[in-house]
Amino acid sequence: MLGLIAKKVGMTQVFDDYGELMPVTVLKIEPNVVVDQRTPEKNGYSAVVLGSHDVKEKRLTAPNLGQFKKNSVDPKRYVVEIRDFDKECEIGESLGVELFENSAFVDVTGTTKGKGYQGVMKRHGFGGGRKTHGSKFHRANGSTGMAAWPSRVIKGTRMPGRMGGDRRTVQNLRIVNIDTDQQTLLVGGAVPGTKDGYIIVQASKKKG
To answer: What is the reported pTM?
Structure first.
């Protein structure tokens, strides 16, 4: 398992090897510093703790700041733990986009865009009612309850509510280009999250 913290720059389009235009997402890999390590002897499992994006000490709580001071590492805003890290590394070492040079696909995890409170047509794709005059049923969800039995709304019924802002993972996105000078990664298709949002990029098990 290999992974890094990245920033979603935005989307663009490039021509592939067959001359066809394809959408890609640009991911910026800022220096990922090894903050700490988990070992089977001490923690019961193997993992690497990565940190990205420098932050002032006053922005962190005392427990969060302690893990940086313990290993003499500059405080980081984003911290993620990746289990079974395949690369040998030391605390304080900086990792970059070169980590994915031998990978053809990646899995991207991020927080989707928040949509706020939405109705059933936008949230669940309901068709809605007739668009005719006098229908009085256009974008509502319709009846949700039962009659005499069981006289309640069944759990899990699709209804209006908060939409977006969920943790999502998109698997097997093809790596289109790796720019070691700019420390950017181009992956085919869209990834969850907003522009300038931070996401986790991990090497996929799928081979090219």
So the answer is: 0.86
